[in-house]
Fold this protein.
Amino acid sequence: AKLPPEQRKMIEEQMKGNPMMGGGAAGPAPVRKVRKTAETKAINGFPCTKYEVSADGALKSEIWATPHSKCNIKPSDLQALVEMSKMFESMLSTFGGAADASGSGFGNVEGIDGVPILSRTFGADGKPTSETTVQSVSHEKADPKLFELPAGYAKSDPMSGRQR
């Protein structure tokens, strides 16, 4: 607000369309559709059903999901992975739409009845560009030592710069 008019105009032009600089979103989000198919097969011992995910009519991914009960995972158990995936998608989308929420990953489980065991993403040419597969599921308590700071490190408050 305190810049001379010519400097202000130059900066506003640079910010246009750049969400990281407050310039607004890169464009409207694609219309995402999930279609459950009749295809089934076992993947790594999990009975799976195929789902196709499209955006604006183009196939973006296929997800092979197993019922939650087959790997002893409740839908709420996936919430941390969903939130983490959405965070990364949001971060990447600020770089000019590098991430596409219609693709694969745990951020893409809306409309999928089960746990994704195999997720395959397709490019604009219809060819696969990435694939993620769950090999196994185990339920173990994490050792509390995994959450301790390594020797020589100290907690700090990034806002104040003080160590605690």
Confidence is low (pLDDT under 50) at residues 98-104. Residues 59 and 91 are 23 Å apart (CA to CA). The helical segments are 5-15, 79-93.
